[in-house]
Here is the input.
Amino acid sequence: QTTLNTTLTTSHSQAITGLTANTLYHYRVKSKDAAGNLQTSGDGTFTTQATASGNTYYIDFASGSNANNGTNKSTSWKHAPGMQGCSSDCVAKVPQPGDRFIFKGGVIWDHTAFQMNITWSGTAGNPIYFGVDQTWFTGSTWTRPIFSGDKMRLAIGDSLISVISRNYITIDNIELKSHMAYSNWGPGNIDHSCAT
Here is the structure.
């Protein structure tokens, strides 16, 4: 129950704190007019928003280290989970719904980092994000991070990125280039089969 507001106005608002995320709440509004006549509304409901889940990890092929924790720009990983060469703390991280993997702008990942196999799914409202933060880059201005096949045979696979039978994955603002696959299927940058 909230505190009674005795001011006579035609518009009221009430801040409510201490609510649980992603929870259905019921409420009623009581109001008295100048004559003291009480009116009570019917049952109303609202659902609080789900909290954003997941963690953010930073990846910099030029100066990161997989032995770092990856949780801030100064302790970035060299590879993202799923990339060839991901080891140590990087390989120990199993991506969860809501996790964000941020690649440093202007940095090139060469063919030794690929194929990147994305073997996890996010959820509705909490996709797994592979993308950028345009405030984090090398050089004088932001440019996209580049996943480059270097026209070389990849360490594993026939595409730079493989997303098979996974859902709620976002790949954003990453440039894929210079790939020449050696397979019967021909060259490809993303091999995917997703419902969402």
In short: The longest strand covers residues 159-164. Residues 181-188, 192-196 have pLDDT under 50 and may be disordered. The radius of gyration is 25 Å.
